[in-house]
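A further point concerns the way the authors explain their paired sequence and structure data. Each protein is reduced to its one-letter sequence and a matching series of backbone shape codes. An entry of this sort, consisting of the sequence and the corresponding backbone structure tokens, reads as follows:
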Amino acid sequence: MGRSGPALDPEVPVLAVKVGRYPQTPSHLGAVRSFGRLGVPVYAMVEDRFTPTAVSRYLTGAFVRPSTGREPPEQLLAAIVAAGRAIGRPSVVVATDDESAVLLAEHREELAPYFLLPPVPAALPRRLANKVDLHAICQDAGVPTPHACAPTDRAGLVEAGRRWGYPLVLKNLEPFTRLRHPVVGHTTVIRSEQELLAAWARAAPADGRASVLAQEYLPAEQAEDWITHLCCGPDGEPLVLFTGLKLRSWPPGRGVTARARACPNPELAELAARLCRRIGYRGVADLDWRLDLRDGRYKLVDFNPRTGAQFRLFETVDGVDVVRALHLSLTGRPVPPGAQLSRSFGVGQIDLLSVLATSWGERRPPRDVWPRRSTERAWLCRDDLAPTVAEAARFGCSVVRVLAGSVRRS
């Protein structure tokens, strides 16, 4: 069962790429469904034949190319080129993680015979994905952002904690190093100097230096989490620009989106558009903001130069999302203007975990517990059930492994 949408060129296929082991990423499957429903041949690089993406009815072909992100760039690039050659005609390529976005931008000339790519400045995606470079870009552009620094040793990290106080947020600093030498598994809230020193001791390399960002913590009870997804055309103007409110995440308050709602926000939209114009951004991007209710300012937390995990939350009344807008632009077709639809997005199993954790911690259920009729689900779709089964199996195995590990440690 297909869905209506813009008239994409069915002669131009799509390749969804990623680097690292993320078999359960909703953005990968979302891209496959988005294009496949409109009759565009869509291929994907996957870890194995049984990932949720690989079993989608909308996937034309899977390239099994497992990677860790620790491979030499030449090896990762060769895998993308091999996929392009196998497809056999120029294709639109969609990056679903920072590492692949960086590779595509920095090697655009080598990839040009096989792929259609937005003319983003080659060095820009790496700078945007680097947390300390992003902080400098925001300061230069006059865009609010939390205080941050990139201490390279233990003393600098301790000094940051004493300067801003606790809690303190720790993030891996840049693409590729977050896969090769992660300091934290994900964005981590540190609540004391003792916790900070323990985290450093677990992750610091032998030379006592590490790639980490220390960031000011904006209290969850005095903030709102907002999302901006957009696609900028070759002239730098946004072809589509969406805004939404993140309702829950996993882990709560600092992780990936578990539930969100599309909400028009002209002030935030203009702030995001102004930043992208200023830096000359081209292509798809996913921006995370935190509205600091203490001063009423939207502060940029992350700029992901690629498709976001929850991009299917956003669609216009004409059926345009960010990846469809990219395809239209790169194939020389107009992007129809239209207001964004009012709907929600949920990632079933992790949303359930977030609800349970939030209810336990706050002693009350969170808002928007029950899905709305207009909810776009990351996995469960009546017209594409196989990925739901594959995801449930993988999630179940993950739970068993966690429980088994807990038993062994007890």
